[in-house]
Write a structure and sequence with these properties.
By secondary structure, the chain is mostly helical. The protein contains 14 helices and 2 strands; from the N terminus they run αααβαααβαααααααα. The longest helix is centred in the C-terminal third of the chain and has 38 residues. This is YedE-related selenium metabolism membrane protein.
């Protein structure tokens, strides 16, 4: 019971901070959204030119700093990688395409639901279906292989990138773009966002909370440990919203901030996100924390997320409150087909290698 209570508290801290960030200026139902924040950063550095979503989000910098510092203190930091790196890039790429068609990462999906957005229920069902499909691949032998120890300097690249982003955020050079309207212009104070982001990063590093991992373990091995963290996020964020953000709280499908009610595409886009998250071994927020503690494979996954976010806005894949775009719908279908074929191919190859190894041992 102690472990469950601890995970609930960890999740509750994240839920509370998300509500505070929304109260202090972040977009509606978007106290925290890892996919949206990386999308904003991609726009700020010029990878896309959608003027309403360009801002170096200090929360992401805080996540990285918090997880990096606590991993050093607790001796969890270790440079590692080399586990199907290119495949991870494309899984991250398609994961964020799904998230931006839905208009939110899996964490924001939970936060949207906690503020009354019933569209998030459709997304949640899709996410669970994607995780369930991913579990079937895991049962049949899907794996991206083991990571190995890397040159120590490689583990510091992501934290160094966060430092560079912080410098850009502070000095605001002419080649960095900042939105003057739209979601990108809605932001909590920089110092508050950075500090609270560091708290979230530290909590996530210690707790290992992951939306995909929580639901996967509950379905696959009936282990509800991480699920209690997700429950903590939802319940505390719900209570905090009723206290801090009551004016914006309303239950329904219509008129929800930065959301749409295209139910089929909310479902399918999050199916893609759930499937990619399971095949990667973690949702976007988990990948960010892993990258912060030296995992270069997770770092490449984050690069895939950033490139995919830029691609989504450069080619009109990302949804708007008006709904999913034609290009976005096509991209989701392509993503699902691609990822299914990829996973099947990996299983087939892994099983072939196992058979060959058994044959070698038999003939030895």
């Amino acid at each position: 019971m102690g472990g469950k209570r601890k995970m609930f508290i960890y999740g509750g801290i994240i839920g509370l901070i998300a509500a505070i960030l929304m109260k202090m200026g972040n977009p509606g139902n978007m106290g925290i959204c890892v996919a949206c924040f990386y999308r904003d950063i991609a726009g700020a550095v010029g990878l896309h030119r959608a003027e309403v979503v360009q801002y170096i989000r200090p929360e992401i910098i805080g996540f990285i700093f918090g997880a990096f510092i606590i991993s050093i203190v607790k001796r969890d930091f270790k440079s590692r990688g080399g586990s199907s790196t290119l495949i991870r890039f494309f899984l991250g790429f398609f994961l964020v395409i799904g998230a931006l068609v839905f208009l939110g990462c899996p964490l924001r999906m939970i936060l949207r639901l906690a503020n009354g957005d019933l569209n998030a229920i459709i997304g949640l069902v899709g996410y669970l279906v994607g995780i369930f499909i991913g579990i079937q691949f895991l049962k049949k032998g899907y794996t991206l292989g083991r990571s190995i120890e890397q040159n120590k300097i490689s583990g510091y690249i992501v934290p160094t990138m966060a430092v560079v982003l912080l410098i850009f955020l502070v000095i605001k050079p002419a080649f960095i773009f900042f939105s003057t309207e739209g979601p990108g212009s809605m932001k909590a104070p920089v110092i508050l966002s950075l500090v609270l982001g560091m708290v979230v990063g530290a909590v996530l590093q210690r707790s290992r909370i992951c939306t995909a991992g929580g639901f996967r373990d509950a379905m696959l091995i009936k282990d509800y440990h991480f699920l209690w963290g997700i429950i903590g996020i939802f319940i505390v964020n719900l209570i905090a919203n009723l206290i801090l953000n009551f004016d914006s709280f309303h239950i329904g499908f219509a008129d929800q901030p930065v959301a749409h009610s295209n139910h089929l595409w909310n479902f399918l886009s999050m199916t893609l996100a759930g499937l990619c998250s399971v095949l990667l071994g973690g949702c976007p927020v988990r990948q960010t924390i892993l990258a912060s503690e030296g995992d270069t494979d997770a770092g490449v996954t984050i690069l895939g997320v950033i490139v995919g976010a830029a691609f989504s806005h450069n080619f009109d894949l990302a949804s708007s409150p008006k709904g999913a775009t034609p290009n976005g719908k096509i991209a989701v279908i392509i993503g699902i087909v691609f990822v299914l074929i990829l996973a099947y191919g990996i299983i087939k190859n892994n099983n072939k290698i196992k058979s060959q190894n058994k044959e070698v041992i038999k003939n030895a």
